[in-house]
Design brief:
Blueprint (H helix, E strand, L loop, with lengths): L2 E5 L2 E3 L5 E8 L7 E7 L6 E6 L6 E3 L7 E6 L4 E6 L8 E10 L3 E5 L8 E5 L2
């Protein structure tokens, strides 16, 4: 059974760091490009970052470039999101899922299938 389990969220002050993890089960991770999305209260899901299954290339939305780093460990079936220099506008529930692969990853969900997410709150 396909399952995404996110963890690592929490409450931090602006400028702080968090490392999110997403444990994936039910599929062989190295066959899928993976991405992180977030949803702030009252807003739509926003694609944040993705990492390609083909060549390991990555994509970041402009608002997180230089601050967030996505990585994957296929042996552990886990994808990570290292978040540094956090800002209040990063506050959201963060989700991971499989994404489209087309000459690199695209932050579009491959499946309409989501985990429970992990809450990130950035506040002073």
């Amino acid at each position: 059974q396909l399952q995404f389990v996110e963890s690592g969220g929490g409450s931090v002050q602006p400028g702080g760091s968090l490392r999110l993890s997403c444990a994936v089960s039910g599929v062989t991770l190295d066959n899928y490009s993976l991405g992180w999305f977030r949803q702030a209260p009252g807003k739509e899901h926003e694609g944040v970052s993705c990492i390609s299954s083909d060549d390991g290339s990555t994509y970041y939305v402009d608002s997180v470039k230089g601050r967030f780093t996505i990585s994957r460990d296929n042996a552990k079936n886990t994808v990570y999101l290292q978040m540094n220099s956090l800002k209040p506008e990063d506050t959201a529930v963060y989700y991971c899922t499989a994404v489209v692969e087309s000459y690199g990853c695209v932050v579009v969900p491959l499946l309409d299938y989501w985990g429970q997410g992990t809450q990130v709150t950035v506040s002073s």
